[in-house]
Design brief:
This protein is α/β, with parallel strands linked by helices. It is built from 8 helices and 7 strands; from the N terminus they run E-H-E-H-E-E-H-E-E-E-H-H-H-H-H. It has 3 domains: 113 residues, 3-Layer(aba) Sandwich (Rossmann fold); 34 residues, Double Stranded RNA Binding Domain (2-Layer Sandwich), CATH 3.30.160; 57 residues. It binds ligand SHN and 1,4-dihydronicotinamide adenine dinucleotide. Ligand SHN binds next to helix 1 and helix 4.
């Protein structure tokens, strides 16, 4: 079976447990920062960056080897030690309701972490299902050029313009046309998209 189901998880207030404190654990923790999740790292040793994050209170670090109580209350679990047997034991110790990813066993994992870019409200995730994380990274780098920083502001514009269209344009065909118009290259590249939008909205309202 090679068809995964992509979703964007809201992790606010949820507990994420990362077992291991090496380079991989650090990358997973970095990806979780900013999601509002409660991050706990379990590992006798960690990288300097993880120590720094623990020192500033952004994550909790339990300076110990893994034991199964460490999974209590966890929603997401990352088995990221360099010991294959420990990683498999973590998966066994987890309940069916907990989602576990095993750093060295894509096939045995409940989920994979995709390569990801964020432009404000726009999220683009790329996964190769474990076939080639390197290809996922390369595709991400291409997308970073294609979807530059300007998209953040553009997405905010689309968000509020769409709310106005939904409220003010009742005719279904015109509504669809307007939503398509603002999501076009012309609007993306426009120097004054707000004014152009208001003009378009006015004209649409005046159409009989
Ligand atoms: C299955 C998965 C599980 C998971 O961790 O969720 C997994 C598994 C493994 N990765 C390995 C190696 C590397 N992974 C990276 C980098 C990334 N790995 C990520 C995700 C995933 N990696 C999941 C699948 C995602 C997918 O396929 O789409 C990314 C996308 C996201 C992230 O980690 O945040 C992030 C790029 C972020 C970015 O830059 O955008 C690099 C460095 C690089 O490429 O620069 C290397 C070294 C080069 C190489 O080996 O390719 C190994 C072999 C370990 C060994 O040598 O033993 C395994 C285990 C195995 O394959 O058995
Ligand atoms: N999923 C991915 O993206 C990648 C996965 N890997 C795999 O991920 C694993 C970890 O890789 P690195 O972070 O580079 O290793 P690392 O050697 O830098 O770190 C391993 C960490 O695990 C900790 N650890 C060992 N035994 C433990 C235990 N019983 N309980 C808690 N912590 C324990 C160590 O203290 C250390 O902090 C390896 O199995 C590697 O094959 C490697 C590269 C990418």
């Amino acid at each position: 079976m090679n068809s995964n189901y992509p979703i964007m998880l809201k992790l606010e207030g949820k507990k994420a447990v990362i077992v291991g404190g090496g380079k991989v654990a650090e990358r997973k923790v970095t990806g979780l920062l900013g999601t509002g999740s409660r991050i706990t790292v379990i590992s006798p040793h960690t990288t300097d960056e993880l120590k720094r994050l623990a020192g500033s209170g952004r994550i909790e670090w339990l300076e110990k080897s893994f034991s199964k109580e460490d999974l209590d209350g966890a929603f997401l679990i990352f088995a990221a030690t360099n010991d294959n047997e420990v990683n498999q034991y973590i998966k066994m110790a987890a309940s069916d309701q907990q989602l576990v990813t095993i750093a060295d066993d894509p096939e045995g994992s409940d989920f994979h972490v995709p390569s990801h870019i964020q432009r404000g409200r726009l999220s683009i995730a790329v996964s190769t299902g474990g076939a080639s994380p390197t290809l996922a990274r390369k595709i991400r780098e291409q997308l970073e050029n294609q979807f530059d920083e300007g998209f953040e502001e553009y997405l905010e514009f689309l968000f509020s313009a769409r709310q106005r269209v939904l409220k003010e344009v009742k005719n279904a065909t015109r509504k669809r046309k307007m939503l398509s118009a603002i999501a076009s290259r012309e609007f993306l590249n426009s120097q004054d998209r707000e004014a152009e939008f208001l003009r378009l909205l006015q004209n649409t309202r005046n159409d009989v």
